[in-house]
Amino acid sequence: MFYIEPGLPHEVFNCSETDWVHAIVARSDASEWQNIEPYDRDSE
Prior knowledge:
By secondary structure, the chain is largely without helices or strands. The protein has no helices and no strands.
C-alpha cells in the first residue's frame, strides 16, 4: 500500500519493459479527477 499526500506531484508507471503490473487505485474523492495536473518527469 502506498499513501501519497494531497498536492504531492506523482505519476504511476511501470519501470519494466517486460513484466506486467496490475494496480488498484483508490481516491478519497471522485471529483479529484478534475484537479489532476499532468506531471512531466523529464523536467526534473
